[in-house]
Amino acid sequence: MTSPVLPETRAGQWRRRLGLPDLTGHGRIVAATSLDTFGVGMFIPLSFLFFLLSTDLTVAQVGWGTSVATLLSIPFAPLAGSAVDRWGPRACLVANNVFAAVGYLCYLLVDSLPALVASMLVVLCAERLYWASWPAFIADLAQGAELDRWYAFTAAGKNASIALGGAVGGSVLATGWSGAPVLIVVLNAGTSVLTALLFMRPARPRPGEEVTRQTAVKPDPDPEKATAPEAGQAGWGTILRDRVLLCLLASQAALAFGWLIPTVILPVYLVEVQDLPAWLPSTTLMLSSLLIVGGQTYVTGRLGAVGRGRVISWAAVLILSAVGLLAAVPAVGGRPAIALVITAVVLFTAGQMTATPAAVALSATAGPQQARGRFLALFNLTWTLSAVTGPALVGALVERHTAVLWAVLAALVTLGGLGYRFTGRLAPELLGSPRAEEPTSPPTKRGTHT
């Protein structure tokens, strides 16, 4: 006999219309995420400047040290993925915040280039651990369209917290007090410690959820399934031999170059190359953040019934349109050029809001469950590839070969979008089918990480 389906409450209806996840019993997670990103936002205005104010290092030395630390942190990503699969995402989130706090406090002791690289390496390794564990942590809380709503909600919340933290940090620095930089670093480390404490305690289960979990975990009577890789033997080889997963990694690696537009390309392209007002890059970045805060959850909620592969390919079209408008700026000039840039940023942000939750949800669900952390580590290295090589690409082409830069960027975004469509044909059950609006039962935790 099946249980009767209860009618949805008015609050639930509004939550679904706005694209919000069910936050019942998860207030600690929301608080931890907001607190952590607020601390990061406070430090952002100071991130490069701190070492110039507190040490005798030059701008070139700080830049070189940052690049070296970033490269040295890359091999830690696979280790972070293995750690998530072994100890679980919640334990790794606690470790991530502890490592981050230690790294930030080490910033106060930096007095040489090796010390700079070492302290930055601790913070960057903590960041690798975060991006391997956070999506997996959320994937243990939700599934189907609800998973995308969680990622959308946290993306919007993080943008708001970072903006608020940046405003607070900028205001503290604007006082001119000599101890302001040290205070900001200490406060940032403190938010990491508090976040670790919040993550140490598991979320309180919602009424009836614990019973559902206990009844949902049943031994599989199929002995062949019990010996499958997903049952506990999945590892790096399983991922690297799966052509669907490899296609996903290649597609995201190409598409991720589009994310260089607002932070890396526009400041130089608009001010130095096109001689547009200096306020335009920061204004467009603020506009993008406001759109994400105000519209991310609604956009994701409207796309919940569409396969993730199609969603991401549509996003690639929006980003490609933004690239085309930005490439046309030299032919317009003046105030029309400013209007063209703003339109392009709106299109890019729409693509970003469309793609990001779907891509993160896909990265957390595509790989074998027992190797989820490993696949997430590889997936997030695709962003590192564009972050490391993108500035060099922009620096080489943006001034004298601007048309080539936009052509290369358009080609990469196109390849990424087509790659997702191709992968959707290889695995329509993974990328092409609509997501269930609500799971029939809460997902079970993997292994012993309950």
Question: What report would you give on this structure?
Answer:
- The protein has 450 residues and is an all-alpha fold.
- The two termini are 30 Å apart.
- The chain contains 20 helices and no strands.
- The protein is 74% helix and 0% strand.
- Mean pLDDT is 85; it is low at 206-232 and 437-450.
- It has helices spanning 10-18, 27-43, 49-54, 59-73, 76-87, 89-107, 113-139, 145-174, 180-200, 209-216, 223-226, 236-240, 243-255, 260-273, 279-302, 308-327, 334-365, 372-397, 402-426, 428-432.
- α4 (59-73) crosses α7 (113-139), α5 (76-87) crosses α6 (89-107) and α7 crosses α18.
Topology:
Blueprint: H1 10-18, H2 27-43, H3 49-54, H4 59-73, H5 76-87, H6 89-107, H7 113-139, H8 145-174, H9 180-200, H10 209-216, H11 223-226, H12 236-240, H13 243-255, H14 260-273, H15 279-302, H16 308-327, H17 334-365, H18 372-397, H19 402-426, H20 428-432
Helix pairs in contact: 2-8, 2-9, 4-7, 5-6, 5-7, 5-18, 6-7, 6-9, 7-18, 8-15, 8-17, 13-18, 13-19, 14-15, 15-17, 16-17, 16-19
